[in-house]
Amino acid sequence: MEIHGTVYYETQRPPEVPAFVKNHGLLPQQELQQLLRKAKLFIGFGFPYEGPAPLEAIANGCIFLQPKFHPPHSSLNHEFFRGKPTSREVSSQHPYAEQYIGRPHVMTVDFNNSQEFDSAVREIMRTKVEPYLPYEYTCEGMLERVHAYIQHQDFCVPDVAFPPANISKMWPGSPFVILPNSTGLGWAPNASAPPSWPPLSALQLLVSEEGQSCVEACQRGGLVCEPAFFHFINNKEALSRLEVQCEGVEAEMNHVFPAFSVVQRECGLQKDPLLFSCAGFSTKYRRLCPCRDFRKGQVALCRDCL
C-alpha cells in the first residue's frame, strides 16, 4: 500500500518524514476528507489521545488501526498524565473507538508485537468496510442528547443534600434488590428516593475486584459507570445487602470509597462527594460501583432515559 501523511512543513525546510511517505502537508478540511475517502487504512501512533481524526477516517470508510497500551497509560506511568488529578487509565489511543465501535472498523493491537501487527494489516487488506458514523456523532444523535439533558435536568432546583454516611438508616427497609441473572443489585421499584436522572431504574450496583476500577468493573458487565448514582450507593444499606463483613464502617475522604477490604474487614464510605470517582482503584479494596445500561450508539443515555 502507498503511505500518505499530512505533516506540516515550511517551504524552506524539508518535511521530517521518510521519503517513502507521500506527504501532503497541512490540508484544508475538504481536501483531507477527500484523501480519507480514497484511503483504506488509517494508522494511529499512540498520540494524541481521543482525537477526532480517527472518527473522521472511520466515517469516510477507513479502518482505524491503533496501539493497545500495556500497561494502560495513566498518571502513574506516563508523562502526559503525570501530575494531573486523575486516576484514569487509557487502554489505547482512542478507547471510545476500541470499546464502542470495534471490529471491523477499528483494530486495536500491540504495536510491539510484529506478528500481531502484521496479521492485523493483512486482515485489513482483505476486509471491505462501508463508511460508519456512530449515531451519537450524527446531528440527530446530538439533538437527542441535548433534548434529554434539557428535558430531565433542572438546574434551578437546589441539589439534594448529601446524606451523612454515618446515619444508621437512610431508607425504611433496604432499597436494594438482587437483579435477575446477575450478581449485582438494583434499586427496588417501591423504594423512595429523591428525584434522579438518569433514573434509578437504570442502576446496577456491582462490586469490583481488588485493584480494579469501577470503569473496568462496569465494562466487564457490559455497562458503564455512572457517577450520578454514587450518592445512592454510599451507605450502610448497600454494604449490608451485599453481605459484606465489616468490623466497622468509617467515612473518609478517599477517591476509592465506597469500598471494602475482604482481608481486613474494613469498610469505608465517601465523606466528600467531590471525590466520587469511577477511575480510582486500590489493590487493598473492592469498590462499590454504580453502573448503568446504555443505548446502542448513544452511550451517554440509559435505555430508560428517553
Radius of gyration: 23 Å
Name the shape in a single word: elongated
Quote the beta fraction. Answer: 15-25%
List unreliable stretches of 5+ residues.
none
> Could you report the average pLDDT, rounded to the nearest whole number?
91
Largest β-sheet summary? 6 strands, mixed
Total strand segments: 14
- How do the SSEs run, as a string of H and E? EEHEHEEHEHHEEEHEHHEEEE
Describe this protein's structure.
With 306 residues, the protein is an alpha/beta fold. Helices cover 22% and strands 20% of the residues. Strands 9, 10, 11, 12, 13 and 14 form a six-stranded mixed beta sheet that branches. β12 and β13 form a beta hairpin. It is elongated, with a radius of gyration of 23 Å. The two termini are 46 Å apart. The mean pLDDT is 91. Its EC number is 2.4.1.155. Pathway: Protein modification; protein glycosylation.
List the helices and strands and how they pair.
Blueprint: E1 3-5, E2 21-23, H1 29-38, E3 41-43, H2 53-59, E4 63-73, E5 90-92, H3 95-101, E6 106-109, H4 114-126, H5 139-152, E7 176-178, E8 185-187, E9 203-207, H6 214-220, E10 224-225, H7 230-233, H8 236-241, E11 248-252, E12 259-261, E13 266-270, E14 286-292
Compact overview of the structure:
The chain has 306 residues and is α/β, with parallel strands linked by helices. Helices cover 22% and strands 20% of the residues.
